[in-house]
Amino acid sequence: MKKKILYGVFVLLSFLAEAGYRWNFLKEIVPFPWAEFWYHTLNYFFRDLLLSWVALFLYAQRRRIRDRVKRYFPVVVVGTLYLADALFMVSYLELDPGFMTVLSVLAGLFNNIVLVLLAAMCYHHWPNRVMKGLYFLAYYVTCLLILGDGIYFWNTSMHVESVLFDNLNIYAAKGILSTTENWQLGLLAAVMLLFIPLFRVVHPRRHKPNLPWSLLCVVLFALGLNGSYVLLAEGTYHATDSVSGLDIEVDMEKSRKPTRAMVAYPINVNFFHKAFFKTDKVVHDPWKYQERTLSDKDKAALEELGILPKQKIVPRKQPAYDRVVMLILESVHRDYLHHYNPNIPADATPYLDSLVKKYPRIDHYYSSAVPTTQGLNATFRSQLVYDKDLPGERQPSLFRILQQAGFEGYFINASSRYYANEYREYPAQFGMEHYLAKEDLGNMGYKGASGWGFHNDVMYDAALKTLAENRDKKLFLVCKTLDMHQPYPYYGYTYAEMPEDVRDNGTATVCGMYWVDKTIQHFFEEASRQGLMDDRTLFIVTSDHNPHSGGEYKTLVTNPQDKQSVAPIPVIFISKNLAPLADLDESMYASQQDMAPTLLTLLGQPVPQEFLGRDLLQPVPHPYALGYFGGKAYYYSADRNFVATLDEETPDTEEKDALANYIMYGYVKRHIEFMK
């Protein structure tokens, strides 16, 4: 009874402490934000309760803990290693130390030790060399995966398996190594040697554990813990969403869900699961759909949307330009420019704003796909769905067509050629003749690459050098930057070097855009100084995709429509000769899939029938933007916007059904054609 009273007092004091702290934090706000007060008070109060239950459980088991630690010491090593990794991720990702974060760590702790625990239980039940070997293998591989994954996450904010198993080959493995510093690899090797003597196994006792009962307990505990985590993660979000006055907390909670999931994932299980990862497909078995076609109802709806009938594209008789230089900015939303968004300080993007005002642009230009590879696929091949199963060399692309017409094709990439299998994927799929990545630039004498790759200033210097070397040739040059990649954009200046309203804005994104702006300015000033800006050269400034994540992106961009996975990105056309672009309608809706047809038309080249996009210089009755991501098709125009889920059995509108079928059957047609 006395213990219950003491615990009741603890509960009361904990609640009062959390409420008092939150009251002092919010009391100056008028009117007082009661919803926020109760949200944070209960969040941290439940956190305290959860931790107290864990402490009480450990206290109740204190007499057994020493024995279990000795008996299952390798499991303890794995658990300790995971906790260090999890706490690092929580700190690095700036997760709130509230109830759900603590629960995700507890779930992750169990999930990451469970394989080693099962191996230990089997060894103690069947104490032979084979079981001991399997026990050591489970222990050592799990340690390796946790430690290696932690180091890789440190450098990239990504998990190893998400890169390695997207395309399982030696290039993916080299990509892992190329983004890891030498001292980190040395640390990994040293610690892995240390893990060998830490595998201490006591001699099994005469009385073996009840294996069926132990397994049942493990299964029930796993189901209970993970079920609670999943249900509470969804419940917390929906409960928060239902309370007025918690808009910011709702956005934050939505962004935290996938981040906490990374903490809760079993690294060892997820690692091997990813080994069987398949590319996201519109349909898993295209052959089942080979006889299907768009219905008359679908065609009527697509005509109303402006998608059908397909525009007949007539290329220019004479090329308008001899050289096209495309600067593709990493993860830059249209509304990261002050010109489009007053939330961005004017001092952050003055040069980009001047380009927008001076040169032709499209104000409603949308990403057609995310992430980078899919965005490039839309830009270079005018397709919405990137299917790595299809042979790239058989598919028409902007690079292939221009190179056949006598253009030199260059793609300069800031990241490692081994990252995400890009060295194998990009030349094979997109067909650029010259592919230069981080390693190639390093061999050329460029210095200062980070774990990710080279920064904007180096990339633009390399692009200028390439342009200068080809000033009298036909050239298609693409420079893909890196510095605005989430979650922490690079901004190349000290705090004191940035304008006051930029540095005091409080967001890394704004500071990053200041760096983007200054390096773009340097590029064009240097191009002008070297005489590289002339009547026969067209420069294009655009982005690979919008940030497509939460946090600062959701805060800085105000229009809910523009916060979706497919969202507006900048596109600016720059040249001393703007006459060929006189018919460009800056107010129309367009997307990345329209870039390749437009450039081919400008350069006097035929546009393949397979390209989905249209020539932006030829007017159409109903201009639109189209995108695809994660099984959803996105449509935007001046009079409507909607999202169609491709596997939805009963869409609520005919236009959603028609768009989903258009994407799906177009994908099937291409897949079957190229896989014959």
TrEMBL record:
Q: How does it sit in the membrane?
A: Multi-pass membrane protein
User: Pfam families attached here?
Assistant: Sulfatase
Transmembrane domains' residue ranges: 43-60, 72-93, 99-122, 134-154, 183-201, 213-232
Q: Which domain of life is it from?
A: Bacteria
Q: Please state every residue range assigned to the domain named Sulfatase N-terminal.
A: 324-604
Subcellular localization is given as: Cell membrane
Keyword annotations for this protein, in alphabetical order, are: Cell membrane, Membrane, Transferase, Transmembrane, Transmembrane helix
Q: Which InterPro entries match?
A: Alkaline_phosphatase_core_sf, OpgB/LTA_synthase_biosynth, Sulfatase_N
MF terms in GO: transferase activity
Q: Which GO terms describe its cellular component?
A: plasma membrane
Pathway membership: Cell wall biogenesis; lipoteichoic acid biosynthesis
| Gene3D superfamilies xref list | Alkaline Phosphatase, subunit A (3.40.720.10)
Kindly provide the name given to this protein in its UniProt entry: Phosphoglycerol transferase MdoB
Q: Which organism is it from?
A: Acidaminococcus fermentans
Could you read off the lineage of the organism from its UniProt record?
Answer: Bacteria, Bacillati, Bacillota, Negativicutes, Acidaminococcales
